[in-house]
Specification:
This protein is mainly α and 290 residues long. It starts with a helix and ends with a helix. The chain contains 12 helices and 3 strands, in the order αααββαααβαααααα. The chain has a 3-stranded antiparallel β-sheet. The protein has 2 domains: 1-34 and 43-186, no CATH class; 193-217 and 224-283. Helices cover 46% and strands 4% of the residues. Helix 1 (2-35) crosses helix 7, helix 2 (51-63) packs across helix 6 and helix 8 (193-208) crosses helix 11 (269-279).
Amino acid sequence: MRTVLKWAGIVVGALVLFVVIGGFVASRVGAANIAEVHDVPVATLAIPTDSAALARGAHLAGIYGCQDCHGADLSGQVMGEGGPARIVASNLTPAGIGGEYEPADWDRAIRHGVGIDGTALFVMPSGAYHHVSDTEAAALIAYLEALPPVEKDLPPMEYTLLGKLLAAGPLNLAGGVYADPAPATSPAPGATIAYGEYVASGMCAYCHGEGLVGKEPEQPGAPPAPDLAASGQWTPEQFHQALTTGVTPSGHQMNPEFMPWTATARMTHDEREGLRLYLATLADRRAADA
């Protein structure tokens, strides 16, 4: 009996040692992944200064949900504590990173998910913005550079041991890096299928997957993102109600944390209508491709 217990203790001790060593190695690998420097192509953007471009940039900041993470005045906020990391949305005004960023730095961060130091930006949804055209990116940057400075004392982003362990595996919490060049041009905003496809290729596809066929969530606790072909069959009234109030035709109230209807509510009617017109073509497009 004593021999059995002795060997059991040895086995348990060895397993504990293995877990400790494995955890240490994984945390080092995760820390290295977080600190990895990425080289991505950045467009040379001509930043406009006219009032129309600034107004367009302010509008884009709204429909792309910048305020949802960085606060109403874009001065940043702590979005979460504990778990894998302290999540901090930066102060975008000139009193924060806006005072350090050049146009190339803005572009690298917004469309490629890479910060000024070359490391990946945690929870920055650049996958939704990678398809933003040079023209619209320049207008957005123009607006950000014109923000009034807002002083705010924010703590740094900080990964916990859990975050480093997760960053060592397939779930790399350092965020997504998009190295392909972003598009140079985009259709004029409005109630057209072309503009709707442009919006859907970035904002919608980020959650709903390529072809908008639906996608399993990456965020823990989030529901699956459905196939959007069905929403293209809603009536115009139902579609605009869902994207402005979050209430679907069945009466379900969508959670803005997972479906950003608060951002789509800031779109103009024609911009949403363009999206609806494009989604209404999905079923026929898929049938033609079958």
